[in-house]
Amino acid sequence: MAAEAMRALRKLQISLWAAAGLAAIAFGAAYVTYGPGTGRMAVVQERPSAGMPISRPFALTDQRGQPFTERDLLGRPHLVFFGFTHCPDVCPTTLAELTDLLSELGPEADKLSTLLISVDPERDTQELLAQYLTAFDPRIRALRGTPEQTQAALKAFAAFGRKVPLEGGDYMVEHTAGVLMIDDKGKLMGLLDMHEPKEAKLAKLRRLTTATS
Amino acid sequence: MRHLTVGIAALALMTLAASVQAHDYKVGALNLDHPWARPTPPAAPVAGGYVAITNTGGAPDRLLHVESDLSTSAQVHDSSVVDGIARMRPLDGGLAIEPGQTVRLEPGGMHIMFMKPARRLVEGARFSAVLTFENAGAVTVEFTVQKPGNEPPPEAGHQGHGG
Q1: Nearest-CA residue of chain A relative to B106?
Q2: I want to staple B110 with a disulfide (CB 3.0 to 4.6 A). Which of B33, B93, B105, B106 is the partner?
Q3: ipTM of the complex
Q4: Which of A86, A93, A160 sits opposite B148 (nearest CB)?
Q5: pLDDT per position as a tens digit, A163-182
């Protein structure tokens, strides 16, 4: 009798521990997803995947003040990437390489609309973006919005942007890398990996412009 | 014979061109190979600088800080793309250079970030910076402004011309 009671108690103990363990895992997952440290810019991390329609509503403006919404993605193919001007390395490299690719594509490049979406709208003012872009192909536009509009746009592209504080009150922004290739129906065709050889990138861009013209 | 002379002249010119382009510095047991920075777009709030540092000594060293008349502050950052996310982190405690190791600051990896540059960096310009190491001490170097992809091959900096 005493032995049976002990066994029952032990079973109860195990199941209680198991429940506690599950609760801890669930809490941990919730903490990682929603907890402190992810900050206000955080979004649940999704990934852009091929075939995905970019149809969730967003509203941004370009460096000349022209509005741009998800409906403007229709009718011509787009290249979309994310960045910010306080980025000394990856973002200017992407802009310089896209400038180079657009010039190599020749007249085909006129069919493409190339958009940089700022993940740092607080510091990337319309004026700053307008000045910054003059160093690159004039067909590249920069879009920005309020922090809320920016998050909505990132969500539409299943992209990610998050502030990371630096010493002295500054911050950096982590963001989705790579260039999204979107066809004229607003569907994601794939990613342009900037580490691929130039010929491979040009071939992808030609496919994007011819598949949709 | 004539071809040979032309060939030698061409070779000499190429060597000369290479030596004008590449520049390196020595401080203590460290060799600093070809500090350079990329041209900046107008109004750019930051500029990125690069250099390769070789530790020829027997003890580890550390790049502690960078000062420059170009900017109010400069930090060494590591940028990387992990799982499709571009990240950038300051290096806490400086940049370690182990004995026998060459640490390359180069596009897509580590860089010196010059905050709020006082002027736009245009191709061909130069600016100086003081790099302070834990053991080797401070060294003043010149960064040349050039487009990425135009940096001289790593060997070119070691062909016998001091900074």
Answers
A1: A89
A2: B105
A3: 0.77
A4: A93
A5: 998 877 889 999 999 999 99
